[in-house]
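Possible regression after last week's pipeline update?

I re-ran a chain I had predicted before the update to compare outputs. Posting the input and the new output here so someone can diff against the archived version. Not blocking, just want to make sure nothing changed silently.
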Amino acid sequence: MLEVKRCAENPLLSPEMVKPSREDFKVEGVFNCGVARYEDEVILLCRVAESVRGAGEGEVLVPVVEKNQEKDEITVVHINKAEHPELDFTDSRTINKMTKQGKKTVYLTSLSHLRVARSKDGVHFTIEDAPFVCPSSEEESWGMEDPRITQIGYTYYINYTSVTENGASTSLISTKDFKLYERHGIIFAPENKDVTIFPEKIGGMYMAFNRPVPGGIGNPEMWLAESPDLIHWGRQKHFCGISHGGGWDNGRIGGGAVPFQTEKGWVKIYHAADRNNRYCLGAFLLDENDPSMVLAKTGEPILEPVAAYETDGFFGNVVFTCGCLVENGIVSLYYGAADDKICRADFSVNDLLAEMKAL
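New output (post-update):
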């Protein structure tokens, strides 16, 4: 049995520790962070989700980004529930509408941006008062979600889910110091998310997991893609699907943390959800030279929502990772809990490898 040690300081970051980006905003969650070490600090690039204060009874206020005279500005949409019986407000994260094609999301109830938190010891973090990156009207009018950080040389490549009314795509920015950044645009068109980029070329090409969501045939499952330059991706190959029984991964499956290398091959920590939207984490061991080959995997979750801060929150029963640090044989896994907090859990690389069963 893998020994996973949840940090005694959990949760490390929670909404009340984060300053809203505007006076009329309320921080609903700080979660799903990319992770990196920069100089002598551990950097968490956090997703901060904010809603609008001051909604009246029976009213929902929705923040979106629109372009006004060539400037991106946040607009608040007022929705009276009684005037829209066709809309479903039961999911705290979204406003949905039933169509002939099925459920369609027409609004998100919060707007997310990316914000930096810094720590000397990897446990006690100071989160900055202002966003590191704000959403743009062109690519992220409904927000920026779930960043992953891949360090290649001295550059940190940050891919994240960029959401507009046209769908959830994946965009890329890069930074060398977590102060200035450069945008590189959309790299996977909608609907595609949960992208994790390997930290080095394999066979002369960059590689990345991604998770397209078919609208007709197929399920939300993991694929592998190749790129010569981190911008243009192709040679897509299906990697892994959901289970079809009553298991913990029978709903959807997607990339979690950025892969890391061991003496036995690449380790890929991933997330999966069951049909009740309970999110857990598992791991694959992949061939060093061909990561499409799965050598072994964990049979049961390595982390599942059992602590109160994981079962209760903005959206309960969720543990969801976007990154980890691997130092001195220990995996320090940073994860979002219940879609509103950031936590940490540690375990041994060797113990994780021993837990996996060969295929």
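Follow-up from reviewer: compared with the archived run. The domain at 5-50+115-358 is CATH 2.115.10.20 (Tachylectin-2; Chain A). Marking as no regression found.
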